[in-house]
Amino acid sequence: MKPSCKMAKSKDTTEEKILNAAKEVFMKYGLYGSRMHDIADTAGINKALLHYYFRSKEKLFDTVFSGALHKYLQQMDAFLDSSLPIRQRLNNYVDNVFSFLEEYPQMPVFIIKEVSINPELFRDRVDVLKKDKGISIIQVLEKEIELGTIRKMDTALFLINLHSLCSYPFLAAPIFKHVLKANHKNWEEYSPAKIKQSVKQFIERTLLS
Amino acid sequence: MKPSCKMAKSKDTTEEKILNAAKEVFMKYGLYGSRMHDIADTAGINKALLHYYFRSKEKLFDTVFSGALHKYLQQMDAFLDSSLPIRQRLNNYVDNVFSFLEEYPQMPVFIIKEVSINPELFRDRVDVLKKDKGISIIQVLEKEIELGTIRKMDTALFLINLHSLCSYPFLAAPIFKHVLKANHKNWEEYSPAKIKQSVKQFIERTLLS
DNA sequence: GTCTATAATTTGATAGAC
DNA sequence: GTCTATCAAATTATAGAC
CB–CB of B187/B78 below 8 Å? Predict the structure, then answer.
């Protein structure tokens, strides 16, 4: 809010308008399903400018995808505040994952789809991203089990379950909304907050029931 | 196995070869990302034949999508064997969902993506499919709660969690495999059987812990 | 940097021989 | 029913004016 904060100035550059538009279109339609024309229209500029800033469709896609993957893996492995007790840390982790998913609901499907079509997109990049990561959530859990703080369990399976419970409700929201509205008479609304609560309940019951 | 069974004869018709190829390509690339050329190649036939059997790309896609949606909703709501106790029924349900997902791992993403791009695909068809359905899983759970057989809970939320735990591991398999292999030293393999077991554990803990 | 015009490919679809 | 040849439209990409 200070006058020195230069967000208004740096926000509306053409390159950023293109990147934002590309993000939107690529996330929805994927690499092969997207049209440069659509991206230009969404950005409110001319097609030729896309090629001026990014040589080709593939280059533009690569830029968008790299950014997305980086952001995704970063939040997936962000397990900070090592001073806090494990339950608190897990709760914070779920909070972070949910804020991330509320901002980018289609991020997981985007990554998953594009990787399934083009596996080298993943292989080429993951190892690089690994380097600047700290200790992983799995290793933390393993240590807590050794210490006896939480129940013995398959930590990888726990992580799979946890992310399933967080991500899928966002990506399957349109389907769930329809099915639930039809079958569940007193179903109020599709609420991320309620879903988040149920994830935390799952954690609590898994760690020690 | 009887000689009267005519499966060999009816299997390799051109129309079926096209439909199988279309299923494969559309599921992977979506409507806009798929190329008729690819479908023809996958089917091992000529492009022109696609238009001979199905008027247009849209018609062909519609056929594939309708079939997929029907199959998906059918298994999502198949909750038979009403004579069995509720825990047994839920276990069978999970078994069915897993066999379905092992056969069609990308089915959920396919439906979800195409519906998010083209919402009327869903709206136009779901109501029709609803008609021949029996009682839904949610209504069964509500009744069991009334009877006191299971703990009081938000049944819609339970269904969301349940499907998240089943579907997401299949669709995110490539990602999980990579991340786990890197972070989890003694991680053997990505096993659907183990994941299924954890889903059943979730059910047990949720119904009454 | 941004636009218009246009080239070069790709892609959905059809006509017509067999 | 199946194929080859081909058209028309769409799509990526570039050239050149401003």
Answer: no
